[in-house]
Amino acid sequence: MAEENKEKKAAAKEEKKKLDPKDVSIDPATQQLQQRAQELNIDTAFDRAESLKPCNIGLQGICCKNCAMGPCRLPLTKGITKDNDNRKGVCGATANTICARNFIRMIAGGAAAHSDHGRSVAEIFLAAARKEIQDYEIKDVHKLLDVAYWFNVPMTVEENGEIKDRDIYEIAEEVGIKALNEWGKAEGELYYLRRAPKPLYDKWKKMGVTPRNIDREIVEIMHRTHIGVDQDYRHLMEQGTRAAIADGWGGSMLATDLQDILFGMPSPVQSEANLGVMKEDHVNLIVHGHEPVLSEMVVAAAQSDEMIEYAKSKGAKGIQLGGICCTANEILQRHGIPTAGTFLQQELAIITGACDAMVVDIQCIFQNIAEVAKCFHTKVVTTHPIAKMEQENVIHMEFDDHHGWEDAKKLVKLAIDNYENRKSEVMIPRQKASQVAGFGVESIQYQLGGTFRGDYFTLNDNIINGRIRGVAGVVGCNNARTKHNDAHIKVVKELVKHNVLVLTTGCNAIACGMEGLLTPENAAVFAGEGLAEVCETVGIPPVLHLGSCVDNSRILLAATEVVNAGGLGADISELPVAGSAPEWMSEKAISIGHYFVASGVYTVFGYHLPVTGAPVFQDHLYNELENLYGGMWDCEADPIQHAHKMIDHINKKRHELGIDKQRERVLMSMEDRRALEE
């Protein structure tokens, strides 16, 4: 009897450990598959987040492990204030120094990830310009010429006394050479810095934070944060700022522009979002990661008659391609490929039992997908030369840009061949939602007025007259330590309810798609009266999907276009705008957040920021930076309060611009108009 009671207690304890799926996500599809994972005894990120508690000192940002005398842990305890803070590491580094070092190392990691992505695209772009590879070509000539302008590449040449247009591929080659040099040139500064409003560029020059080249700024962070080098938190943050600008106005912006030229400019396209896009009677191929160089070829191969017929020969009705994370956003915005899920749904896509292959490249990929795949028939395939997994069941098929089409067909064929090996009951959730994505700086301008009348002044005018309160960039990942999609959706819904137009990228964009926030017809459901009226008139959703996380540069350029259109201030810092990452988790988010701050944007993060253990450094981020760059950091875990901090800031900027007074809308007669002209 005693043994039986012991077993019952153990069973009850085990049962108690199991998470309630409704506690981990607001999404019914995620809840359903989390429940299935528990029934199959498969652990997911949600389970691991529950069992692995974070280190409290690490959360505060005050654990230094940059040398073998550490780790030195300097907990912020009761009684310590910024006036009596005597905490020191073995080398004497203060809490502010340690916290600043940790913070800018995150900037370095994030900037390196985005910028290395950009470098890969630049290398392929140059090879395509030189016609050294056959599978990639210049698809958008207009974008090429726009980019050439910023690189001071001449569009014409003088021959025999006559001015003639240069060959497009000749222009592209010169652009490619100059673009690639941005990562390591010996002199000067990044070309794209002058795309920023002049007051912002002048501010950077005055502060001495204009990046010299992309790689140097990242390397210098690693040098400065070595033991015994830079030990002034303000000085450390100057270098963090320089590296973040090199990411946002350098590597990321270059990646976006060169991808647009190679793969085509995104334009509004209708599709669907959530795990319900998978089909039981189709070959399901999931692409996951961040670089569209691979996924562009996979899309072409999966849609080819050859591969579709091959799939049918294996008993499938066709091929269903879906995306996870930012690869999902890349193939969505250019091809309308449905989005299977966010960062935290990658394991769940396999748990459906219907995923025949998951093809991954770089960034945000759980190593545990290989362990989940062992329970199913799914083939996990790594494709990038810098990213492999140790598990034996993972296949590495390195993608060769020079043989992109052939390599893509091999990947699609692998998924098709695996279709008949399904060994588990298929459980695909029904949940999926319609979405409209594919917006960008150029397509927004077109939506605002068409080919000949498109201008950002239309947006400015509606901000001035109060129909639109302001604009928010809401971006970022999911975090397993927060309720999946909950903060994303609550923040966005609260913003649009208060007439704030939202620009979104990354997993926030996917979450908004799953919730139905990315359709024009839902503006009347979610948005305030003024914003809903504008959306109905123009035919846009209240939330505009601008692409992947590397495409945050589109938000910066959209803000710049608002400045250039006039009527709302001379710099980004004067605009009624704010930034947000409600469920952030990666180093990339810190780099993104800081280049928004350095560009003059008030930026709020959810969950937490690892700076609370150093009150002086925290005050520098949350207050002092505004005096330097016009933007500053903030953190708020509660999503409603988070949104209202942004709204309050937008209201403050409206007041400073003198546009906070409600204006009565009057239908003017000709007599009234003549009076105005006089």
Report on the architecture of this protein.
With 678 residues, the chain is α/β, with parallel strands linked by helices. The chain has three domains: 95-263, Substrate Binding Domain Of Dnak, Chain:A, Domain 2, CATH 1.20.1270; 275-421, Rossmann fold, CATH 3.40.50.2030; 433-657, Rossmann fold (3-Layer(aba) Sandwich), CATH 3.40.50.2030. 49% of the residues lie in helices and 11% in strands. It is built from 29 helices and 18 strands. The strands form five sheets. Strands 8-7-6-9-10-11 form a six-stranded parallel sheet. Helix 7 (141-150) crosses helix 8. It is globular.
Describe the strand arrangement of the main beta sheet, using strand numbers: 8-7-6-9-10-11
Radius of gyration: 26 Å
Architecture per CATH nomenclature, i.e. the level-2 architecture of the largest domain:
3-Layer(aba) Sandwich
Helical content class = 40-55%
- What percent strand? 5-15%
Report the strand count: 18
CATH top level of the largest domain is: Alpha Beta
Principal-axes geometry comes out as globular
Which whole number gives the mean pLDDT? Answer: 94
Poorly predicted tracts of residues: none
Estimate nothing, just give the exact number of structural domains: 3
Largest sheet: 6 strands, parallel
Enumerate how many helices there are, as a single number. Answer: 29
CA(first)-CA(last) distance: 100 Å
CATH topology name of the largest domain, in short, is: Rossmann fold
